[in-house]
Amino acid sequence: MDTALTHWVDALAGSGPAWLLVVGVLLILAFVAVKALPSIDKYRQGRLEIEMEREKRKAEEVRLRDERDRENARISTRSLDVQQETNAVVAALSQQMAEYKNQQAVTAAHLEASRERSAAMGKRVERGVEIMEDVAQEVHEIHRHTVRSR
Question: So where does this one cross the membrane (predicted)?
Fold first, then answer.
């Protein structure tokens, strides 16, 4: 083994400054690796934290969207309830209006019948007045004939 080491040292000594260059490059690479590895680790850690924040934000957005959807569903349900109540009120008002119009028609028919009866009664009263005037005229004539004949 000593001979192998001796040959290796001789080979390095024979190549001159090239072996120093190789050792220097190796030392620089080792130094850069030692300094860069924590930075790479910090970079990965930062990316991981950013990803975790992104996932938290997504979860919060999903929660808010679900809450908004539930609120919209409650509003829609309430709107439907109000619409049904409004429809019921409109139907009740329509029914009352129909009954009112029917009552108006019945009242108008009664009024027309009353007018016709009043007109007929008025004609009878006029006929009665005419008869009474004729009777009064005849009584007057009788009276005049009776009182003059005396």
Answer: 18-37
* 34-78: pLDDT as tens digits: 777 787 888 889 899 999 999 999 999 999 999 999 999 999 999
Cα separation, 48 vs 65, whole angstroms: 25
Which of 37, 6, 11, 35 is CA-nearest to residue 22? 11
CA 133 to CA 61: how far, in whole Å?
A: 103
- Tell me, yes or no, whether 104 lies in a domain: yes
Calpha distance 73→50 (Å, rounded): 34
Domain that holds residue 104: 18-148
The percentage of the chain sitting over the pLDDT mark of 70, rounded to a whole number, equals: 85
